[in-house]
């Protein structure tokens, strides 16, 4: 506790770094996975290559991915964008499958009924498919958010600062309190973001309880 | 792309495959270490998971374990164990075991749980003992999902074993962290490429194992491609 009170401003700064390094990839991955998942659910030809590619991408260790990204995108090795791009890719790898399954779960009859009511393809997506797929997608979004928060810490070993810096610093200087603080805060951030997602889901999709899981 | 050419040139240089700092030795270290952790996780997790799936008791424990484990950052576990146990292999062993157990347990449990209760009832009706039911009915039918859990664990262990070099100088993380310290990007990238290739190879082996098990469990079914995979993954 003494260590924490003496280092509060450092911990606070790292917490903020961690928050934005988690939030940006979560939002980006979600925004990219929804159209990808929709395409995969509606076009068989896209489904297999997309899901194979994302599955293999997820097999690559994050540290290896973080090291390869600067070489691929021409970034500085310690740029926070390395973590953001890497975690967005992982997020897509996790979410694209969930989104594809969610859009696949929308019944054919439901879509035909929407067509019969005169919906254009665009209107049908926003007013029928997305509202029905949303609650199913929420589960994979939560898994993805929690993993992202915990993966952000890996960047610390190559110098991208986050709560993971408390692990590397604490280890090198032999301070248990630093590592424990990092562990507790990372788990707290993960559960807090998870709670935010559940809350937003409830507000944005008040009908979700009507849908059988 | 030039950087990749340099890293590949480093990997192809026979000088880097000889002597005590040989990359081949690092790969061997990485595989033995990961294999040992995985074997231990399987030895504990599979019987426990099968028992939970068979009896239906302790389901809440598995769910809590797997969702809780996802939130715990690997690097934090490694460093705190590293401080507590000193530099050596004990700390990464323990940290990796903690990470590998939940997916193995969840896969074994979910696999047995998914076996049709009517099938189990049928086996009991023809006079099979509980032991026979578990070994001859439930395990073969649960195998695809069970192997899916081991596959998740294997990938997680292989990737986390890279981070383990941060606290104990072993495996393929070693060239990576040497590169980080020396500011030698080429060596880092070479190490990263090797780990990525190794992970992909392990993933493909487990995919093949899983579809072989699926064919054995349901010989007449239309081959479904890799549907049986434990959903939780928290790679390092």
From TrEMBL, chain A:
The keyword Transmembrane helix applies. The chain crosses the membrane at residues 20-41, 53-75, 81-100, 143-167, 179-200. Pfam families: BPD_transp_1. Residues 15-197 form the ABC transmembrane type-1 domain. It is found in: Cell membrane; Membrane. Keywords: Membrane, Transmembrane, Transmembrane helix, Transport. Its main location: membrane. InterPro entries: ABC_transp_perm/SBD, MetI-like, MetI-like_sf. It is a multi-pass membrane protein. Belongs to the binding-protein-dependent transport system permease family. This is ABC transporter permease.
Automatic annotation (TrEMBL), chain B:
Gene3D superfamilies: MetI-like (1.10.3720.10). SUPFAM superfamilies: MetI-like. Its main location: membrane. Coiled coil: none annotated. It is a multi-pass membrane protein. InterPro entries: ABC_transp_perm/SBD, MetI-like, MetI-like_sf. Belongs to the binding-protein-dependent transport system permease family. It comes from the Bacteria. The chain crosses the membrane at residues 31-53, 60-87, 93-112, 141-167, 187-206. It is found in: Cell membrane; Membrane. The keyword S-adenosyl-L-methionine does not apply. It holds the Pfam family BPD_transp_1. Residues 27-206 form the ABC transmembrane type-1 domain. Keywords: Membrane, Transmembrane, Transmembrane helix, Transport. This is ABC transporter permease. PANTHER family: GLYCINE BETAINE/L-PROLINE TRANSPORT SYSTEM PERMEASE PROTEIN PROW, POSSIBLE OSMOPROTECTANT (GLYCINE BETAINE_CARNITINE_CHOLINE_L-PROLINE) TRANSPORT INTEGRAL MEMBRANE PROTEIN ABC TRANSPORTER PROZ.
């Amino acid at each position: 506790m003494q260590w924490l009170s003496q280092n509060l401003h450092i911990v606070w700064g790292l917490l903020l770094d961690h928050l934005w390094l988690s939030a940006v990839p979560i939002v980006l991955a979600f925004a990219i996975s929804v159209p990808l998942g929709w395409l995969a659910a509606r076009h068989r030809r896209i489904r297999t290559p997309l899901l194979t590619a994302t599955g293999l991408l997820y097999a690559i260790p994050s540290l290896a991915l973080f090291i390869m990204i600067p070489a691929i995108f021409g970034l500085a090795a310690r740029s926070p964008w390395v973590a953001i791009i890497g975690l967005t890719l992982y997020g897509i790898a996790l979410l694209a499958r969930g989104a594809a399954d969610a859009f696949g779960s929308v019944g054919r009859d439901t879509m035909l009924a929407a067509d019969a009511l005169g919906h254009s393809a665009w209107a049908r997506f926003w007013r029928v498919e997305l509202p029905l797929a949303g609650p199913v997608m929420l589960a994979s979004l939560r898994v993805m958010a929690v993993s992202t928060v915990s993966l952000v810490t890996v960047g610390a070993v190559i110098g991208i600062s986050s709560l993971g810096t408390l692990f590397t610093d604490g280890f090198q200087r032999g301070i248990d309190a630093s590592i424990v603080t990092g562990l507790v805060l990372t788990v707290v951030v993960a559960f807090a973001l998870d709670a935010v997602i559940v809350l937003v889901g409830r507000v944005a999709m008040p009908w979700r309880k009507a849908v059988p899981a | 792309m030039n950087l990749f050419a340099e890293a590949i040139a480093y990997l192809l240089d026979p000088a880097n495959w000889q002597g005590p700092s040989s990359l081949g030795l690092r790969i061997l270290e990485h595989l033995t270490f990961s294999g040992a952790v995985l074997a231990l996780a399987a030895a504990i997790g599979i019987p426990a998971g099968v028992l939970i799936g068979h009896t239906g008791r302790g389901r809440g424990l598995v769910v809590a374990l797997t969702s809780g484990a996802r939130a715990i950052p690997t690097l934090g576990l490694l460093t705190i164990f590293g401080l507590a146990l000193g530099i050596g292999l004990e700390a990464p062993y323990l940290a990796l075991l903690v990470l590998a157990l939940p997916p193995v347990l969840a896969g074994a449990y979910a696999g047995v749980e998914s076996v049709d209760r009517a099938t189990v009832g049928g086996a009991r009706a023809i006079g099979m003992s509980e032991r026979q039911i578990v070994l001859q009915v439930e395990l073969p039918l649960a195998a695809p999902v069970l192997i899916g859990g081991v596959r998740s664990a294997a990938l997680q262990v292989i990737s986390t074993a890279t981070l383990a070099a941060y606290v104990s100088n072993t495996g393929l993380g070693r060239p990576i962290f040497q590169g980080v310290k020396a500011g030698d990007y080429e060596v880092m990238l070479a190490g990263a490429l090797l780990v990525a290739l190794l992970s992909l190879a392990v993933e493909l082996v487990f995919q093949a194992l899983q579809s072989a098990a699926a064919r054995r469990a349901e010989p007449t079914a239309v081959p479904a491609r890799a549907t049986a995979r434990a959903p939780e993954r928290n790679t390092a």
